[in-house]
Amino acid sequence: MSEVYLKSYSWNEITDPQDQYQTKKHLCHGYDVYGDMLSYADLTDLKLLLLLGKPPSLDEKKIFNVLEFCLANAGPRDFSVRAAMNAGVGGSSPAAALMASLAVSSGNLSGINELKSLIESWQQADEKIESWIWLENKKTQAEILPDFEHIPGFEIKSKVTPLPVLQSLKVLSSVKNTTKIQYLYDHHLALTQYHQKGLTMISVAACVYLDLGLSIEQAQYHYLQAKLVGAAHHAIEQKSLGWKNFPFAKKINLKNDPGFKGLPEIEGLKPCSKP
Amino acid sequence: MQQTLDLESYSTEIGAAFLGERAVYRGKDLHHELGDKTWFELLIFGIKARKYSLKEVKILNYIWLSTSYPDPRIWPNQVMALAGSVRASICLANSAAMALTEATIYGQTAFTKGFDLFKRVNIRLKQGKLLDEILKQEIKENNILYGYGRPISATDERVPHFMKKVSDLGFKSGKYYKIAFDIGDYLKRNKGLEMNISALYNAICADLGFTLLEYQAFMIHCFNAGMLPCYLEARDNAEGDFFNLPVSAVKYLGNHLPRSWPKV
Fold it and tell me: B113 with B41, same domain?
């Protein structure tokens, strides 16, 4: 019998009497993961059981699945995906690619700090559009991340909401018991007109997380991992395309160039001539 | 109207690599003009483009040195040891452990909040407010004053060592260094809290003119020298040997008895 080292409220592993390092059963909130759930539940059930602590309803499963679908691949222009591609193109490891993507998904623009701000805004607002609109709260004290330079949940430049965002919102709004999603769907035009900026996918994500009842931290963790699907895909693809097919700006305008000062003369060291 | 994008060129003052010829670092030829610097000096020149005296370099160096503890139980160091134990790469382990140091109860967030506290206190002192009033308000608004108090051990053994170094190198007359001690005296008297080392790091870097972002950039590496040996030792030990846990080492605190998954 060993001393207790870790504790968990959700996960209970039962020791195999043959070997104290082997389990014979894993219980998640009391449900037998391999002996029961695996035959009757799916991955979404397990994810939502871990997040919610209870089996999800069909509506919860539906909006969660749709959100994961919508976040899965932001495409190769997305900053966090490009971070992963920089790993892939140089032959860095899969872990490096995903770590790079996670870092770039952690900030104020399309990142989990933006998601946090949006969820906080929703939590403070009532059902009037005027009160929902994100109020710019300049921080009075420094934090790791700087103040927002755009309105969370909205495009930084474009005045229109991208069609894929509207299509995602429409599909989600067909699910019952989704008050925040319904509100966003019903008011998206008014919101874009008010701010003169289009809505972004992170606005949709924030509403789904609120309708699921997730905490800000749970939402942030989920958002990060959901986006990794595309990051992984494009890192692998860029690796196979090779570095010659990865952009590297041809010119650099160095504003304070001291100029070429020559190379040391080393006896016997001569540059090889190109064949 | 569509904005024209120039994807073929990039403007910068930070530097450039002219492959096969040279590299420029903040307007200087890296090999010709900076080649005799230590890597540490180059790093601080990269963060803040000014010359540092030998004494300034020494105190900044001691900030890194004095908090590099190679104890594999320390959280980022555990990541190193775990990675070494499962034979993951040292580079990825190091990157992950460095990411952890952006923590709240120690590391980057604590440095950030503590550094900002000194800046706020200084502004209010300049406005003529009394330190006691300022700190009462700070405690009321924030509860925690970063730089004071320490989990696990109330006393921070790094403080006297650092104070000696500061004194030897002639930095103890700095404005923020004085503020750090004035706040320390108040909290000792009123809350029974001791100053921890981050208050002194914050003060010295504020006195050396670092902005918050420059300070954050500088402090990234402050735990790094303690991390790498933890990985190396775990690699020398048997695979999977770093606190490998039997099943019974995890205690279930939940109140759910085994139950059946609902069948639809």
Answer: no
Tell me if A119 sits within 8 A of A219, measured CB to CB: yes
The Cα–Cα gap between B77 and A60 comes to 39
- Cβ distance A142 to B115 less than 8 Å, yes or no, reads yes
Interface pTM (ipTM) of the complex?
Answer: 0.91
- Whether residue A230 sits in one domain with residue A127: yes
Query: Touching check for A20 and chain B: CB below 8 Å?
Result: yes
Pairing of strands A251-254, A19-28: unpaired
For A165-183, write each residue's pLDDT tens digit.
999 999 999 999 999 999 9
Chain A residues whose CB is inside 8 A of the B261 CB are 31-32, 36-37, 40-41, 45, 55
Q: Does A99 touch chain B (CB under 8 A)?
A: yes
Beta bridge partners of A26: A13
Confidence band (pLDDT; 50, 70, 90) for A112? very high
pLDDT at B1: 44
Of A20, A29, A144, the CB nearest to B254: A29
Helices B39-47 and B212-219: crossing angle, nearest 10°? 150
State the Cα–Cα distance between residues B50 and B34, nearest whole angstrom.
13
Q: Are B213 and B112 found together in one domain?
A: yes
Is A248 at the interface with chain B, CB within 8 A? no
Residue of B nearest to A1 (CA): B248
- Inside any domain, residue A270: no
Question: In this structure, are A116 and A11 located in the same domain?
Answer: no
Of B9, B253, B261, the CB nearest to A31: B261
Distance CA A156, CA B40 (A): 38
Q: Say if A98 is an interface residue toward chain B (CB within 8 Å).
A: no
pLDDT above 70 for A130: no
pLDDT in tens, B12-60: 999 999 999 999 999 999 999 999 999 999 999 999 988 899 999 999 9
Residues of A in contact with B22 (CB under 8 A): 260-261
Q: Is position A100 within any domain? A: yes
Two structure tokens written together for A196 = 């003169």
- Binary contact (A41, B95; C-beta < 8 A): no
pLDDT, tens digit, for every residue of B73-90? Answer: 999 999 999 999 999 999
Contact A219, A64 (CB under 8 A): no
Q: What's the mean pLDDT in A190-200? A: 92
Whether B206 and B134 map to the same domain: the answer is yes
Can you give the residue range of the structural domain that contains B40? 13-51
